[in-house]
Amino acid sequence: MSFIHVDKNSDFPIQNLPYGIFSTCDEPRRRVGVAIGEQILDLSVIRHLFTGPFLSSNQDVFNQPTFNKFMALGHNAWTEVRHFLQKLLSMPEPLLKDNKELREKAFVLQSKAILHLPADIGDYTDFYSSKDHATNVGIMFRGKDNALMPNWLHLPVGYHGRASSVVVSGTPIRRPRGQIRPNDDQPPIFEASKLLDIELEMAFFVGPGNNLGNPIPIHKAHEHIFGMVLMNDWSARDIQKWEYVPLGPFLSKNFGTTISPWIVPMEALMPFVLPNPVQDPVPLPYLRDESDYTFNINLDVSIQGDGMKESVSICKSNFKYMYWTMKQQLTHHTVTGCNVRPGDLLASGTISGPDPGSFGSMLELSWRGSKPIDLGNGHTRTFLKDGDTVVITGTAVKRLSYWIWTVFWNYSACSVEDQV
Questions:
Q1: Would you call 246 exposed, middle or buried from its count of C-beta atoms within 10 A (0-12, 13-18, 19+)?
Q2: Quick count: other Cβ atoms within 10 Å of Cβ 92?
Q3: In a 3-state reduction of DSSP, which class is residue 319?
Q4: Is position 286 annotated in a ligand binding site?
Q5: Do residues 364 and 355 lie in contact, with contact meaning Cβ atoms separated by under 8 Å?
Q6: Apex 394 CA angle, 391 and 397, nearest 5
Q7: What beta strand segments (E) does 88-188 contain?
Q8: 393 known member of a binding site
Q9: How far apart are alpha carbons 384 and 365 in whole angstroms?
Q10: From the CB of residue 20, how many other CB atoms can be counted at a distance below 10 Å?
């Protein structure tokens, strides 16, 4: 229990304590904070309280406009900070609770805060790690007999995305224009995408990273995974169809990728760990991992369009459906000696489950536009319309005897606007 009031339905109990970058109208300086209940604890105000062995000489990491320097400190420092914060915010601890002057400076209402991108993202890699999603897309474009490409079950397939267009939740996304080929027997035309889609994803931030030429082994990968965010990797399917052969997505993905402002640390998620999926064939030795690193995180996607009073859920999925784990993704990414750096972002790829209601993209939910998605009251979608708002939530719930331990994400909301 925290001395800060936390409603039982709050997204931010003391078991969560996600990290975010915020500012206020009164103080436009961007600073680091932790969400608790309806409040944000400003770590720049209380940085002098971090006197443990790893933070006593690194208190300045909490006086930065991003989390990159904190991420770079590594797993032991992250653990020290989280344990100290849980103690500091607990009911019995007087250090902050009984210091009225410091408390008034250190806490900011979330309703008065402006949330920002939590890191300076140097590189962004998007994987393709949901077997159900890859199978569905393969069936659509290649048929059941060739649904998965020969390499898919042997390695985490991925591609390098565009880091500059990763934006924080709430940033409007404009419908992209590009080359599309509506008729296969006609030349391409240039116009606004008509098949604008969402991709339900999660992503993780890299911590210390590695030096060029030194891969991160699978048994060390966890020490380099700082925490997770929700992600919507917007996709223009008609642009993608024309451009992706032979090198994959380019303009169809580079116009915008949205992440939630709060990073949930991995330690908050460990109570929700599940056994890893059975991988057949068994991966090569460098990808084999005996420790569980799959997580039970319920995911929901809803849409609210013009003329709709509230958002309507179109997908209920779960992060546990991923075939390749985050540790396998990171290890595979660096096995060549590629160096990753603090603040780099690695995404899951679209998260789809085994049944139609758990498909994580409108491409699958509408099956290439052949099955309209019913939003009620006469509203339907096959792909996104101008003015639509997409809301993504993630919730981890663990039932322990007579109580429920829950970790929530703040929703990720983004809208599609007319092309100017």
A1: exposed
A2: 8
A3: helix
A4: no
A5: no
A6: 145
A7: 107-109, 113-116, 124-127, 158-160, 166-168, 173-174, 177-180
A8: no
A9: 12
A10: 24
Of 166, 156, 376, 390, residue with least CA distance to 257: 166
pLDDT digits (tens, 9 = 90+) for 129-162: 999 999 999 999 999 999 999 999 999 999 999 9
Q: Three-state SS for 143?
A: coil
Q: Is 338 exposed, middle or buried (0-12, 13-18, 19+ CB in 10 A)?
A: middle
End-to-end CA distance of the chain: 50
Q: Is 186 annotated as a binding residue?
A: no
Q: Of all residues in the chain, what percent carry a pLDDT higher than 70?
A: 95
| 344 phi-psi bin (left φ>0, alpha ψ -120 to 50, beta other) | beta
* DSSP secondary structure string for all residues of 34-45: EEETTEEEETTT
The answer to the question of whether 201 is labelled as a binding residue is: yes
Consecutive H or E run containing 212: none
Residue 9's pLDDT is 87
Alpha helix ranges (H) inside 157-217: none
Catalytic residues: 133
Say yes or no to pLDDT of 312 above 90.
yes
**142 annotated to a ligand binding site:** yes
Taking the C-alpha atoms of residue 319 and residue 313, their distance in angstroms, rounded to an integer, is 17
Structure-token pair, residue 351 = 């998260």
Q: Cα separation of 69 and 60, whole Å?
A: 9
66 is in an annotated binding site: no
pLDDT digits (tens, 9 = 90+) for 251-289: 999 999 999 999 999 999 999 999 999 999 999 999 999
- pLDDT confidence band for 401 (50 / 70 / 90): very low
pTM: 0.94
Beta carbons within 8 Å of 414's beta carbon, 6+ residues apart: 169, 170, 171, 172, 173, 232, 234, 258, 389, 390
Instruction: Give the residue from 28, 103, 15, 88 showing the smallest Cα distance to 395.
Output: 15
